[in-house]
Every structure is written in structure tokens, then in C-alpha cells.
Give the backbone structure.
Amino acid sequence: MSNEETVASTNQTVTLKAGAIDLPGRVLASNCFQCHGTNGYAGELKIGEQSASSIISDINEMKTKDSRSNIMIVHAKAYTDEEIKLIATYISQQTKY
Ligand code: HEC
């Protein structure tokens, strides 16, 4: 598996440091954990137990809404379908730390 990952819509490539868990989606999903807790397990904003398909459909629904109405919609709109798939798959495979 490659130790490089392209981040969000910026096309920047991040090289994971030696010893980091090298999984697709890990770097992209780390942004989500700022608000949704480590591995997605914050109390009120828990998303860690959701399936990948549930996360994908939530994000796609947010993309259709007015971006001024909340911060999550702004995030949702910025990701490509491929990025959302990587993020959702990664989050759905994590367990509570
Ligand atoms: C700046 C904080 C913030 C970041 C970063 C963030 N979220 Fe959110 N997220 C929220 C808030 C706040 C809500 C609740 C929005 C609402 O209820 O309208 C939410 C809601 C969600 C929901 C719906 C949860 C549910 O059970 O209804 C999903 C799925 C989700 N976020 C996924 C993600 C993913 C994936 C990422 C990373 C790409 C991410 N979030 C990044 C703040 C954030």
C-alpha cells in the first residue's frame, strides 16, 4: 500500500510518517475527528458506529442544502465522491479507542 494520500480538493499529497497506520482515508478522516471525536466517537456528535453507506448518504444529503446553514454542510460540499467514499469506509472500520 502506498504511503501517500491526496488530501481534499487541494490535490496536495501527504506522506505518512513511518509507523503511522497506513490506510486509505486516514488522513482525510482525521479532519472529521476534530469535531466528531477520536475515531468518530464523541458523545453528542458520534458517527463512529455508522456504516459507510449511512455516512455517504448523510454527506450527499448535506451537499444539497444551503451551505450557510451549518458548518457540516460547508465541509460536505468540499469533498469529491471518491474522497467521501474513502472517509466513510475508514470511519466505519474504526472501533472506539
Ligand atoms: C467543524 C466541526 C465538524 C467537522 C470538522 C465535521 N463535522 Fe460532521 N457534523 C458536525 C455537526 C455540528 C453536525 C450536526 C449537524 C446537524 O445536526 O445539522 C455534524 C453531522 C455529521 C453527520 C450526521 C450525523 C447524524 O447522525 O446525523 C455526519 C455523517 C458527519 N457529520 C460526518 C462528518 C465527516 C465524515 C466529517 C469529515 C469529512 C465531518 N463530519 C467533519 C460538525 C463537524
In short: The longest strand covers residues 4-7. The first helix runs from residue 26 to 30.
